[in-house]
Amino acid sequence: MTQPFRTAALYQFTRFYDPAALRPPLEAICHAHDIGGTLLLATEGLNGTIAGRADDLEAVLAHLRTLPGCEALVVKYAWAPEMPFHRMKVRLKKEIVSMGQPGLDPVHDAGTYVAPEDWNALIDRPDTIVIDTRNDYEVAIGTFPGAIDPQTRTFRDFPEWFRANRDQLIADGTKVAMFCTGGIRCEKATAFLKAEGVEDVFHLEGGILNYLEKVPADESRWAGECFVFDERVAVTPDLAPGTHVLCRACRRPVSPQERASPLYEEGVSCPACHADLDDDKRARLAERHRQEALAQARGTRHVGAKMGDD
């Protein structure tokens, strides 16, 4: 059966001199076409995931491609049986992916793109180190075996981790291959490494999702599931919905094994955050979960629920 809703994950590093001026017409066209999701605008470009019916989604994407530097905007699509977002948000940000390092220019200074079909050969080289630029909870549910896990809680922690470990990581002739979910974080991370004086820097074009789409299963090196920032939570190597659900308290993925823990309560807590919740927070989460269940029974959506942002 055809699924009625389509999601589009997208980003573009470009120069927006007045992102605030782009916001009202973008909000207007999204609302006119009943689009849900989040789009981030900053002077460094555009980032987000949106969803709607196919024709409506294409109308908004056509508008995005009229923005400066977005003519060749690349979009990763997926289908969904229901609208995966509860509202539409267009936000102004200092960065479209927060690293906290002013002066980086991924438009001109990013590392070398590596096509998914060429990724295995690069990471097999003995002079190459592979770094997973995602957060610790993402790495925990799937990665490329042998990749270095910085164990960062947020992407803003990555520069400090790299500077602290650079001498152990980088030697003469070392090539650095980095990857992330859809390409945006490793594109910025390569620009950061080049600003730090590292020359041989590469990143997986289109990220893990593009790799899983392009590389045959019998050649794939990926192990586990891949966390995604929408209601699917995670996808399997064949890009089908995975086995994880989202903890509504800490926004982390929860495995089937973790859901068997007495510390897991649907909509309220998981083993990772149970100890951090006081009674008031727990009661508010439980009430929100109850309201979501009532809304679902009525065939409506509870607007208080939302996914986390990348």
UniProtKB/TrEMBL annotation:
SMART domains: RHOD. Gene3D superfamilies: 3.30.70.100, Rhodanese-like domain. InterPro entries: Rhodanese-like_dom, Rhodanese-like_dom_sf, TrhO, TRHO_N. The keyword Transport does not apply. CDD domains: RHOD_YceA. The keyword Oxidoreductase applies. Its EC number is 1.14.-.-. PROSITE patterns: RHODANESE_3. Residues 290-310 are annotated as: Disordered. It holds the Pfam family UPF0176_N. It comes from the Bacteria. Keywords: Oxidoreductase, Transferase, tRNA processing. GO terms for molecular function: oxidoreductase activity, acting on paired donors, with incorporation or reduction of molecular oxygen; transferase activity. Coiled coil: none annotated. GO terms for biological process: tRNA modification. Residues 124-220 form the Rhodanese domain. It catalyses: uridine(34) in tRNA + AH2 + O2 = 5-hydroxyuridine(34) in tRNA + A + H2O. Belongs to the TrhO family. Catalyzes oxygen-dependent 5-hydroxyuridine (ho5U) modification at position 34 in tRNAs. This is tRNA uridine(34) hydroxylase. It comes from Sphingomonas mucosissima.
